[in-house]
Design brief:
It is globular, with a radius of gyration of 20 Å. By secondary structure, the protein is α+β, with helices and mostly antiparallel strands. It has a five-stranded antiparallel sheet with strand order 2-3-4-5-6. The chain has a two-stranded antiparallel ribbon with strand order 1-7. Helices cover 56% and strands 8% of the residues.
């Protein structure tokens, strides 16, 4: 039996669901509810809009996405037109602006989040393969320069830029935002062939890897692991002498793998939650942690024992995501927040169980693609 058959069908279905979410004007509704008794909020999220464009572009060879190229272009144009504008953190910086709301839901302040700029840069660079010269070099460079301007003295990155505050560069970027930024810089290096961007990405990744090992952090993040993998794939072909020490990056990757494997539910193969990395069957947590394992599979190339454990884990977790996927109806292909409602859970949990958000879909799409590639390679 072809072990990739289930993932192939699920990838086709979630891809179709995502392109169906693109409106005529290129906007994307951030979330819908599979439960028809709940209203669909008219809400957009520019970070996950950008991430959707990036993911669909990166998987652009899939027949579903190829046949909806014009919808993808509309979504990318919406990102450029609605989200990106001048950020005075430097003379030629551009930001992806986000409205921040107070608890009373009144518009409060506008800010630029590092992760949104990173994933927007990655998306627009990726769009160059779909539509050459889609974005001006001035725009791409403005986004990259914004990331550069967010570097702080510790070697890490700031989380956000809020021009109305006295300290306009605020917070320490979490692993997720740092991963998005570094991933974008590596892609920008590939586009420009300017090695300084690759060196900058390495400084970011090595700093966060060292920091998490030193502080014995329990954080697990798929975006930083995605960037680790991208860097390791890319740097060998870079010009000049590449004395990149990968000790901390590999150590951090292995630590995240070991922590993830410990959490998986494998006791009862007949359980609804079998294969999940979360006790409540939250799909986005399983897809995110599964992605961490999948990216790590290629990073830890010499650790055959751990790689075998990763493959076994991915068979179980991908089957969990496929079981959770909506198989028919208006939201066919969607991935709800949780696989089922739980009588003993909070009313909030059960209310949101059927929520289908862009980030859940992107995580699942990437996860299923990575599983398919690993399953194929392991069966050779």
């Amino acid at each position: 039996m072809d072990s990739t058959l289930g993932t192939k069908t699920a990838i086709k279905s979630v891809s179709q669901h995502l392109v169906n979410r693109i409106s005529e004007d290129g906007s994307l509704t951030f979330k819908v509810f599979a439960d028809s008794t709940l209203p669909t909020p008219d809400h957009q999220n520019i970070l996950w809009h950008a991430a959707t464009v990036e993911a669909l572009s990166r998987h652009g060879n899939h027949p579903i996405i190829t046949s909806h190229k014009q919808e993808l272009i509309k979504a990318a144009n919406h990102l450029k037109g609605e989200g990106i504008s001048k950020a005075n953190i430097c003379s030629d910086c551009l930001g992806v602006w986000i409205d921040s709301y107070s608890l009373s839901h009144e518009k409060n302040i506008r800010k630029v989040k590092l992760g949104a700029v990173g994933i927007a840069l990655a998306a627009l660079v990726e769009m160059e393969t779909t539509q050459p010269n889609f974005t001006s070099k001035v725009t791409l460079n403005g986004l990259a320069n914004f990331i550069k301007s967010m570097e702080i003295d510790s070697g890490g990155l700031a989380a956000q830029y809020i021009p109305t505050q006295t300290d306009s560069i605020a917070g320490i970027a979490p692993l997720r935002f740092a991963g998005m930024a570094a991933f974008a810089l590596i892609k920008y290096y590939e586009y420009t062939q300017e090695k300084s961007w690759l060196d900058f990405a390495y400084r970011i990744l090595n700093h966060y890897a060292h920091d998490n090992i030193k502080n014995q952090s329990s954080n697990i993040d798929n975006w930083i692991t995605m960037a680790y993998r991208k860097f390791i794939q890319t740097y060998p072909s870079a010009p000049g002498i590449n004395n990149y020490d990968l000790e901390y990056i590999k150590a951090h990757t292995q630590k995240m793998v070991e922590m993830t494997l410990e959490k998986q539910i494998l006791e009862d193969s007949n359980s609804t939650f079998y294969g999940s990395y979360d006790l409540q069957g939250l799909t986005f947590k399983t897809a995110a942690k599964g992605l961490t394992l999948a990216y790590a599979y290629w990073i830890l190339e010499n650790n055959t024992q751990l790689k075998a454990k990763i493959i076994n884990s991915l068979y179980a977790s991908s089957s969990f995501i496929i079981r959770a996927q909506i198989k028919e109806g208006k939201y066919k292909g969607g991935i709800p927040r949780a696989i089922m409602r739980i009588p003993s859970a909070s009313s909030f949990f059960n209310l949101k169980q059927s929520e289908i958000r862009l980030d859940y879909l992107i995580l699942s799409l990437d996860f299923l693609h990575e599983c398919q590639n690993i399953f194929k390679s392991s069966e050779v």
